[in-house]
Prior knowledge:
A: mainly alpha, 2% strand, B: Phosphorylase Kinase, domain 1, 2 domains, seven-stranded antiparallel sheet
Amino acid sequence: MQHPKPEQLTDYFYAALAPEADAAVHAHLAQCASCATAYDDEAALSSMLRRFANDSERELPRSVVDGVWERLANERPKARMAAFLGAVMRPFVAIPAAIAIVLAAVFIPQYAAQRDLPSIDASYYLQDHAAMAATVPFGVRSSVPAALVSNNDDDNAPATFAIANDEP
Amino acid sequence: MTSRSGAALVCAAAAVFALAGTARADDAATALLRKAFDAPTKVTYVGEVQSMRFGQNRSEVEIYRVEHQAPNLTHRWYLAPRVAYGDSVITRGDTSYTVDMNKNVIVVSKDDAIDDRIAVDNNFTLLTANYRASFGPDDSAAGRMTHVIVFENAYTGETTMRLWIDTHTGVVLKKEIYGANGSLIAAMRFTSIRYVPVIPSDMFSLPRRVPTVQGGSHGAPINNLSVAMKSAGFSVREPRYLPEGFQPLAADVSDVSGVRTCHILYSDGIRTISLFENARDAAVNLTRFREAHVRFEDHDGVYAEDGPTLLLAWSESGLHYTLVGDLALGELTRIAASVVP
């Protein structure tokens, strides 16, 4: 086998070569001192880089982590709501729902208004008509005497009544 | 001059005299009617009265004793119907005290039109303008001699009313009112009457220990009609059609169950119609009556009978209307259709 290229040594270090190439590089390193030294250098460099990376790693501040989790918590319901609205807006759901909303908007206020509306008993109209119609001296509803016209003005005060007996 | 032309002249003269005689008789009938209008202010009496009104499906009868002291004290004590037995109405001028013995309460109400000279004169003018008064054969009523006046409707020629008027006192002792087909729709008669110089004042006193409550007031005179309509707080509508001779006679605005209601009474001197209006669309409650539906022009209405009285109600443009009267349904719907065309 010819001497492996530097990138093949790197792939060998990371076990990224095909099995035949990996076996060939392994056999070559065992009998070639210069390639074995190059491989050791590559391994040392990789170890140094990993160690540096580990040493350089820093945790995010707590406030940043909390902020991230909070944003995640808020965005999940929105995502669910968006998914729900997406389903609702489908025509076979949206059209009946819209009709129901329109009907409710029209009839519920009317129903509420009707419940609040006062009503007047028919007896009131009949009695009030009878009372006023009785003033027509010879009308259908007049009573006896047929007409009354006072000749003086001293006649309307209940205080002048003689409260005298228990029976009218 | 031939005998034929002479006979013609005699006939013509007879006709002129007959017409003149009829005119004199009509004048005399009108004068007697005027006397009947004024009799209550001059004649004091006690008696018993029967009053009846006949409906299509139900009739009403009242029997009451009456003590009347001229000019304006009256006590009516009801003997029938049974539900009203013992109740009485004491009227003093334009104020009435209705003594309800079952409910143990005295309802005080005021009626401007009863004690108003203008209103009474308006009624007399209306009656004589719309009805032709003539004498019928003399008769007796309550054991007294009477002149009978027949009233024919000036527009239809139908006999609408007969009055039996005491020849000496002018008191109306009997009255009959007829419908358009000649049927009797209302009648009143004294079964007994006795004229007296004075009635003890105790007759017109109120019972003790019975609380009084204020009742409604009715019927401002016609000259206040426009004022009453303006005080309604909404635009009151009047019918464009009324049966011949009907005129607005009185109006009243009152709060009924918190609803401002305008009431206008129309009359031709005998028959009456009431039109009620409110602007809150407060419908009429007919649960105690047999309700029926009627459609006239583009309006849906409900109506119910109460004896001879018909009530028709409908809504239009946010206003609620109720017509009450002793007219046929067709006549009422025609009036109703003209209120809001």
